[in-house]
């Protein structure tokens, strides 16, 4: 488990609030246990040994510091259409585990716009980052319309589609002459994209990509494409 803190420059680091409660009441940590302490504002992390425990705070003695590893490229930017609460939360949690770098919810024609709960989402993303040993907490951006997304896209953008006109994901990966620095991944709502939206994607020059004849739920599609791209670009052979 990684613990995110604001500063590791001193000899001791105090963990407070919800993180301290989790360590004391859930994990039931003991004096002398060691955890990685990840500096949110810097490029280092520290190995901390628990030196004091109280009900609302856990103190760590900093034993060593190291540079954070370089982020893997390409960066993955996920643009999931807003869907039902539990499915949306599943996307957030699992995408963090699969290495997503940032998440921008999208307001599609068939979205459920009242599902935005950014405070809860940030908690889910932070906890998933801690459990999956991430060195950064992925960004959750403001919900975007497709027009707003088109104004500052992360190139290239691929759009997951259920239409048979989409190319398969492997074909798209193989078509990239050089590995991109970032990949924007747009995943539709339950019920899929409307014809008007798909025409807009083509107009923007975004690649319509499919998993073939298999129709997936929105949360499954998000996990599927991230898993495939992680294997394609982040696996050392």
Based on Cα principal axes, name the global outline: elongated
Distance between the termini: 27 Å
Order of helices and strands: EEHEEEEHEEHEEHEEHEHEH
* Percent helix: 25-40%
CATH-derived architecture of the largest domain: 3-Layer(aba) Sandwich
- Compute the number of helices: 7
Corresponding CATH superfamily of the largest domain: SPOUT methyltransferase, trefoil knot domain
Total domain units: 2
Major beta-sheet overview: 7 strands, parallel
Residue ranges: pLDDT <50 for 5 or more in a row? none
Structural class: alpha/beta
List keywords for this structure.
alpha/beta; Ribosomal Protein L25, Chain P; Alpha/beta knot; 2 domains; 7-stranded parallel sheet; 5-stranded mixed sheet; elongated
Describe the protein.
Strand 6, helix 2 (85-97) and strand 7 form a beta-alpha-beta unit. The model has no long low-confidence stretch (mean pLDDT 90). With 237 residues, the chain is of the alpha/beta class. It has a seven-stranded parallel β-sheet, sandwiched between helices. Strands 1-3-4-5-2 form a five-stranded mixed β-sheet. Helices cover 32% and strands 27% of the residues. The protein is built from seven helices and 14 strands. The relative contact order is 0.15. It folds into two domains: 3-67, Ribosomal Protein L25, Chain P, CATH 2.40.240; 75-234, SPOUT methyltransferase, trefoil knot domain (Alpha/beta knot, 3-Layer(aba) Sandwich), CATH 3.40.1280.
């Amino acid at each position: 488990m990684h613990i995110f803190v604001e500063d590791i420059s001193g000899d001791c680091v105090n963990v407070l609030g919800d993180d301290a409660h989790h360590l004391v009441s859930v994990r039931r940590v003991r004096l002398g246990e060691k955890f990685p302490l990840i500096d949110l504002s810097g490029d280092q992390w520290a190995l901390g040994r628990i030196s004091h425990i109280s009900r609302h705070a856990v103190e760590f003695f900093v034993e060593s510091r190291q540079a954070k590893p370089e982020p893997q490229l390409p960066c993955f930017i996920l643009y999931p259409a807003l869907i039902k609460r539990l499915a949306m939360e599943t996307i957030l949690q699992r995408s963090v585990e699969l290495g997503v770098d940032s998440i921008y919810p999208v307001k599609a024609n068939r979205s459920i716009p009242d599902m935005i709960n950014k405070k809860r989402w940030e908690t889910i993303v932070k906890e998933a980052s801690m459990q999956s040993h991430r060195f950064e907490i992925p960004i959750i951006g403001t919900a975007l319309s497709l027009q707003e997304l088109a104004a500052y896209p992360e190139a290239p953008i691929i759009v997951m589609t259920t239409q048979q006109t989409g190319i398969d994901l492997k074909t798209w990966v193989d078509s990239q002459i050089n590995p991109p620095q970032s990949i924007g991944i747009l995943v539709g709502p339950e019920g899929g994209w409307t014809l008007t939206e798909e025409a807009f994607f083509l107009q923007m020059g975004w690649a319509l990509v499919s998993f073939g004849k298999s129709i997936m739920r929105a949360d499954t599609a998000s996990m599927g494409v991230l898993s495939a791209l992680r294997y394609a670009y982040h696996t050392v052979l």
